[in-house]
Amino acid sequence: MSPLLQGVLTIVIGVGGCVGYFYFANLILDKVIFPTKGPNPGRNINRANQVRPWLFLFPAIFALGLYLVYPVIGSFYRSLFNRAGDEFIGGGNYAALLADDGFRTSLFNNFLWVIFVPAGATFFGLLAAQLTDRLKWGNIAKSLIFMPMAISFVGASLIWKFVYANDADIGMINAVREMLGAENPVDVLQIPFWNNFFLMVILIWIQTGFAMVILSAALRGVPEDTIEAAIIDGANPFQIFFKIKVPQIMATIVVVWTTITILVLKVFDIVYATTGGNFGTEILPSYMMSYMFRDDGRATAVAFVIMLIVTPVMIWNIMQARKEMR
Amino acid sequence: MKYKLLTCAAALAISAGAARADSHVSLLFAPGEDSTFNWQSYEDFAAAHDLSGQTMTMTGPWTGADKELVESVTAYFTAATGATVNYSGSESFEQDIVIAAQAGSAPNIAVFPQPGLAADLASRGFLTPLADGTGDWVRDNYAAGQSWVDLGTYPDANGDDQLFGFFYKVDVKSLVWYVPEAFEEAGYDIPETMEELKELTDQIVADGGTPWCIGLGSGAATGWPATDWVEDMMLRTQDPATYDAWVANEIPFDDPAVVGAIEEYGYFARNDDYVNGGSAAVANTDFRDSPGGLFTFPPECYMHRQASFIPTFFPEGTEVGLDVDFFYFPAYESKDLGKPVLGAGTLFAVTNDSPVAHTFIEFLKTPIAHEVWMAQSGFLTPFSGVNPEAYASDTARALGDVLLGATTFRFDASDLMPAEIGADAFWKGMVAYTGGEDAASVAKTIQDRWDSIQ
After folding, report:
1. Are residues A106 and A236 in the same domain?
2. Is the pTM of this model over 0.95?
C-alpha cells in the first residue's frame, strides 16, 4: 500500500472513528439505555443528560490516564530502583543526583533558561506586536517573525549552528567580527557560561512569533475608549503603552510567559543538536538523555525532578488562563 | 551514467540467469563476470536458500554513503534468496537500538559498532545467540579468529557465555592520512617513529604550515575521535596488559598511565600551532569535515589521524593512493612496545529472532559478501577466505598489511567499555579536556561515573 493511501486511510479511520464513537454512543444512550419512549420518558431524559458528559469525556480521560497519569506514576516507581531495575534503593538515585556536579550544572543552566527565554520571547513578542499593530505592512512583518515557529527545534539549531560557525566564511558572527578587524575566528559555543545564552537565543528566536501572535490579539482587544481617554488627558505614547495597554493585557502576558516557561523545561533538542551537552551547556532534559536507556533509575529520577519544577508553573498557568476566561 | 551502468548490470544479471526472476534489485557487479570474485560461493548460497517473499529488517549506524554500500551487499542476499532486506541507518543508533529493544520493536538484525553496547543488551536478554558452529567457523576462517570470537561472546540474561556477535567489516585506526604531493613539495619524509613524527610536526610549524587537522564533532557522539587518539597513545606508552586492565577498569581511569596517554593526545590537539584553526576549533569541527583541510591549496594541514573508513568522507573524486595516502601512526622507538595497532569493527547480532536473520548471518560467511564491499571502499576483513585481489585499490591491500604487520592488535577501548563510559562519559571528558580542562580532573570525573554504575 502506498504511504499516501495509508495516510488518507488513517485520517478517514481516525476522524470517522471519533465521529462514529460520539454519534453511536449518544444514539445507544438515548434509544437503548434510557429510551425517551415507553415508561418514565422524563426521568430517562434527565438521567441521559447526566451520563452524557461522562460519555463524551471518556475518550479524553482514558487517553490522558493511559498516556500521562500512568507514565508519571510508573516513572516515579522506576526512579526508586537501581540501574538494572531489580533492586529497591529508595531515594538513592536522588541522592546520587544531588552529589553529581553535572546535575548541579544542568540545574543551574536550566534556571538561566527559565529566567531568560520566557522573558526574552515575551519582551520581543510584545515589542513586535505593538510596533506592527497599526502598520500597513504589519501583517507581512508578523508573518516573517512568526515563521520560525514552523521550524523544528533541531532544524533551527542546525541553522544557528551555521550562524555560530567557527569560520568567518560560514559563521555570521565571525564574519562580522572579521569585518570589524578581529584576527582569529572564535567558537562562541565554547565560551564558558555565555555559550548558554547563545543557545537560548535560538529558542527565543523560535518562540517570539508565538508570543507576538497571542499578545497582538490581546492588544487589539484593549478597549479603544480607554486609549482615547488617555490621549485626551495628554498621555504620551509610552504612557499609553505602559500604563494603559500593558496593565489591561497583563493576564495574557502571564499566560504567554508561563506557557513558554513550561516549554523551556521540556526542550532538549537545541542543546543536543548544537553542543551535545558539552562545554558546560548541559540542561536537565539533555542530562537525562545521557542516562536514559542506560541507567533508567537515574534518568527517571531526573524526569521527576523536571516534573516537580514544571508543576507549580503549570498550575499558575492554568489559574491565570482561567482568570482571563472569566 | 552510473544509473545506466547499474541498469546494465541488472539486465546482465537477469539474463545470466543468476538472479531469480522475481528480484528487482540491481547488483553492482554482475554475477559470474569478474573472476576476482568468488561467484561459486554466491551460486552455492543461492541454491541452498530460498526465502522468496520474506522480509528482514536491519538497523545500523551507517548512513549516507555507507548506507548505499551496505545496501549494495544486501542486494546480493536478496538476489540469491528472494528475501527483502530493509536497512535503515541512524546517526543515534546507540540510543535507538536500546529504545527499540525495550519497546519490543527491535529489527531482526542490528549492526553494532560497539561490542560494549551489544554486551549490555545481551545481558538483558535482548539478543539471540548465533547458530551453533558459528564460533568454530570464525575461529577457523578469521585471522586471529579466537580474538574475534571472544569479542562477540557475552554472558546472556542467565550469565552463560554465548556467541552473539558476528564481526563483519573491520577498521584499522592507527593511521595518519596525508597528501603525498604536499609532502613531496615541502620535502617531508614519512616518519617511522613517534619521535620523528613529533619532529616533523615541529618542522611543519617552523616552515609556516599547520601540521594537523583534528575534528571531534559527531552530533550526539561528539568526542569519539579523541578517544581513538588516547587509545592509540595508550598502546604507544603502556604495554598491552595495562591497556586491557584499563578497558576492564582494573586500573582506575585516573591512573597516571591513562592520564599520561590523555596528555600525549593533548600534546598535539591542545597546541594552537599544531592544529588547523587552533585548538578551540578541534572540539566543534565535524570529523567528516576535518580531513578537508588536507586537500586545500595551500594545505590547511598536512596530516590527519583517522581510521581506515575515512576516505568515504574525502572530497568527491579523491583517489586514495594517488591524491591521498596514509602511513602507520608510529610507535616510540625508545619504548620498545613493538608495532601496536588499534582497530575496531562492526558486529552483526540477531535482535529479533527469525530464520531469515540467521540465514543472513550465514550469507556473511560467504566470501562474496565480503568481496562486494571490498571492491568498493572503506572495507577491511579478517576473513582469510576472500580473494585479496578484490580490494578496490593497492591502498586497501596495504591497509590489510598494516593489520598483518601488527605485533599487538587491540580493539577500540571505548567500544568495549560500558556504554555510559565508552559512549558518553569518555566522549564528553575528551571534549572537556580538548577545551582546556585538566587531564587528571577529566579522568577523575570519568572514573567517578564508572564507580556510580558498579
Report:
1. yes
2. no
